[in-house]
Amino acid sequence: MENQKATQQITAQLVKSNASENLVWEVSVTNSRRKKHYCRNARKTLSFLFILKKETGIAIEHDTIRHLKAILAKQRASSQAQS
To answer: Which residues, in sequence order, are CB contacts of 35 under 8 Å at separation 6+?
Structure first.
């Protein structure tokens, strides 16, 4: 079981929602039959990634964290520019 966790990673990517035209974040575990989870924004996705990591012991893909943090930084910068 430990070896299987080493080959798995938690990832997140933007996908088109089936319920609307909006994009949502799909959180999944590679090489797993686990159910996929969906989040509406980057902040909730980042939080959910760490919750899933704590529950499963599976590592989060580094590029996923980097990408989400970059998006959050852009959102913060644009909201500060508007105020």
So the answer is: none
60-68 long-range Cβ contacts below 8 angstroms, 24+ apart: 60/9, 60/10, 60/11, 61/9, 61/10, 61/11, 61/30, 64/10, 64/11, 64/12, 64/13, 68/12, 68/42
The conformation of residue 19, written as its DSSP 8-state character, comes to S
The pTM of this model reads: 0.82
Is the pLDDT confidence value at 27 over 90? yes
Q: Report the amino acid identity of residue 50.
A: F
Give the strand pairing for 37-39 and 10-16. unpaired
